[in-house]
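Form 7-S
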Amino acid sequence: MAKRTTSDAKNPLDEAMSEARRGLWVAAVFSFFQNLLILAIPLYLFQIFDRVIATGRVETLVALTVIAVFALFIMGVLHMLRSRVLIRVSTWFENRLGASIITATMNAAVSGRPAGTEALRELGQIRGFLSSAALYPVFDAPWTVIFIGVIWMMHPWTGMYAIAGAVVLLAIAVAAALATRKPLEEANRSNLKALEGTSAAMRNVDVIQGMGMLSAVIRRWGGNMAHVERYLTAGTDRSGMFTALTVFLRQSMQIGILGLGALLVIKGEMTGGGIIVCSILLGRALGPVEQAVGSWKAFINVRASFRRLRELFETWQDDSQTTRLPAPTGRVTFEHVLFAPPGAKEAVLKNVGFELPPGEVLAVIGPSASGKSTHCAACWSGCGNRATATSVWTVPTFTIGIGMISAVISATCRRTWNCLPARSATTSPACGTTPLTSRWWRQHGSPAATT
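Output:
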């Protein structure tokens, strides 16, 4: 069985993103009509100032008011629907990738690349981003051009003013991205390092306590967090400065377009309603740029999360895509087994071999820490060195796949796990023999290795 990698097949992250795009397109459709209905407010004010007040028709005022209120109601409904779609897309995305991430993390640990639980935290961060308002500027940004076009229709001078304002805010957004990217990425990297160090210490708490290394662990964590605070403070301060500058410039530009509109009214080139329309539309046109500056930290974090998940799935292996082998005969063979635990530089098992026919039992005995449990682990995990031969179907176990091995081989833990519900204790391969394997062994005989 060959491993499926990103070079010859899509990994689960790419597949999930491809499927999630359909939900994002639905949210984009809701955003389109929501932004379209925003035009109801400036059009209403334009008609009030230029038509209703001039004619004094109360019936026209009532009709326009009813239409505007109905448009705002529909806009609110669309906003609610968009939010619900994004929440469901984010929840689906997390559920779609959760099992694959756990599988990939375990495969990485077997291969000597332990990933811990950080990958699940990265997935949670992506889920939070997809369901938050930080994604709204992506949907609203295309309407900046449309709103500026409407402002241009009111008068070319106001159109050029709006274009200049958009260019200035866009330049500030680019500067903010360049200024905050490095410190925020360094903060994320240092935070991940601190979490990994703490997780490693918790996994070896008996050694830490026994050797009096707790203070050293705390000092190392404190040093990593000092780096996090330094870079995070620098990045957040810069982001806050650019956000404040963006808010100031946007509000100043709205005041400026009111003054420009008043000048055009004095010259008789624009009506009073046009002033209000230009002011409202300019605020809507520049809003996505301002929101993007404020949400840039979230963009940086989620991009880093995607990158780390993509690295995790670089050697993705899907057992469901493997060739199904015939029913095993029950014969277990070790030939010149060389086994090294993940991350170890030297093998702990060297040139070990035996052949166990169906129905026979092998007892592995020896002093403590002589490699008895490791011997069995090499058999059921299929993670022995590929230069050796460990077989169950008369084929190497490392080519079978974890899911298929667990169907015929079970193990009993020496340590109690607290990761499974009580009702799973009688059915989990980690805590005993499964009903499936028990039935198979009764039919074919059960080779066993005990320590």
